[in-house]
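Quick question: what would this complex look like in 3D?
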Amino acid sequence: MKNHRRSFLKGTAALGTMSLVGFPHIWSKNYSLARAADGEIKVGVLFSLTGTTAIIEESLNKATILAIEEINAAGGINGMQIVPVIEDPASDPATFAEKARKLVLSDKCVSVFGSYTSASRKAVLPVFEKQNNLYWYPTLYEGRECSKNVIYTGAVPNQQQDDFVPWLVEKFGKRWYLIGSNYIYPKEENNYCKKLLAELGAEVVAEEYVPLGHSEFSSVINKLKSEKPNVIFSTVVGDSVVALHRQYHAAGLDPQTMPMASLTTSENEVAAMGGAAAAGHFTSAPYFMVWDSPENHKFVDAYKKRWGADKVTHFVSEPSYFQVYLFKQAVAKLAESDIDPNTIREAVKGEGLVAPQGKIKVEPENLHTWLWPKIGQCKADGQFEILKQSADWLEPSPYKAYPNQLCTATGLQES
Amino acid sequence: MEIFVSQIMTGLSIASILMLVALGLAIIYGVTGVINLAHGEFVMLGAYAAWFLQTQFGLSLLVSLVPIFILVALFGWLIEALVIRHLYERPLDTILATWGIGVMAQQAVRLIAGGELRYVEMPPALATSVTIFGASESAYRLFILFLALALFALTWCIYRYTHFGLKLRAIAQNRSIASSFGINSGRIYRFTFAYGAGIAGLAGALVSPLKSVSPEMGTTYVVDAFMVVVLGGVQSLMGTLASSGILGELTGYIAFYSNDTIAKALVLLAIVVLIRFRPQGLFAGRVRT
């Protein structure tokens, strides 16, 4: 009898615990959805501080922290402080997913700022879609993604290439050599580039991909010497960029007749290869550190003051910075009890501000950002000279290379 | 003709870098039998030493080659004296230990020098290109080629014609019998390890103006070096020379007519097939075991 009662008690206790832990949504509607509480707005900051891409992601982490500190110092958002929860995903996509789950489920962050590589974004995407949370992604990327749980503040292919490719064809010629690292980003960029080149009647003499981390470019340089293209269109990433530029320079090739046109070479990469090896080559991006605007001077000064006078800002750290201000503007429109990822997403649609690069806004249809493409030429001192800015801000079209697909507010439309 | 010459030069250039990196590994493995997974980190330390001497003391790369050799050799000496010495009878443990040393060296460099990519300025005198039979080739790459051959010749002479080399060969054939003839094998091992490390350091310093310098850079080099040693056959210095030549030309040739991704895959495949039929490598001499 005793035994029976004891096991009965155990059983009910277990059942009670289970229902508390396992089915919280029974007790309160939307309980599982992260929201702001106690005058604090928790956000996740998910950039690698160790591992292979830490070199660049560290600067994104710094730009994000800088913006959060500035907003908090100026009184927060409607009196509430932003509390960053910083995690180090160690440049590993699996760890990205694990840390994202932690930030969303156990820390209950209402948004997470993070990722540099496409691989890490793809790894966290299921977490944000399943938990209906919001991810803010600052990097230029290959497009072809349509998620209502990601705000994309970096450029997509049309925003980097629409001005750049025709300009290069006119200035240098129609024989193009496409070279990239062997993964999805360069392939999608080249895919779009080939469409533009075909419209302009230009010729692709070679399209080539080297392994990630590749550092021996002597065969590539040999091919460049024999093909003599007018433009080398480069989407090589990481330390390979450094090796390619330095070996191009050592081989005595001339940027005046055979320039490299890159979508990935920022001030950060130039600092790693030295100005001499980078001088004369071109990059297309919405932001360069030398851009002359009051907002940019303020950003660069604040960044250097906070993190060191030798630090550079670049076209991924700038979106990392302004997207926190976009977040602030969206949250400021909401009542304290209303702040959750869903309301933030609705509030940020169409929201705009004057960023260091110029006035930007979030496109309500696809949650990408209207940006100001610029063309820069690298100088020997490691900075760029801005040769051209687009006449108007440019609409983000993540599916522009695929005319039968369109990203809309209701999802991907196929025709 | 022009393409043909520049194609051969490209292959030789790749081969010279492969050989520089593999030479140290081949010496250490050939003599002591230690599979040194920290070899890539010796290369990395050499590159960082070049960067450090250049940015802190303004030393040109050419001037700093000798100090770099001594510094990295000293590091190898310490590793041998502190760790490897105790593990000669346990070959599996040396793999783990050297791998651990490699990881620690990477992280130590990251903590001290930071994770940013670095570069080393090329000596100005060599930052031009030279024309050979109508094909232009970077003077610096030619310099690496000549230096690699010179280092190989030096190592060969030490191995073949010096008293030290004689002892070394005796130990490589049979350690206990050599010891019973009064050869201090512990001391020879330590010298060998230090020399191999020093050569690896030189390799790192020499490639640093062409490639990026980062804490993880050693990882790719150690794989390449093992390919060379496996193909050439252990305990055969000539094998190392020949196999780096073959791998360099092969990679350069395939990469030119196809691309680097295919080249890497095909070369690895060729090596796998080869060691299936000739596990001792191409040029292994007959060794009593």
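Answer marked as accepted. Chain A touches chain B at residues 50, 52, 54-55, 58, 182, 208-211, 213-216, 218-223, 225-226, 239, 242-243, 246-247, 250-252, 271-274, 277 (CB under 8 Å).
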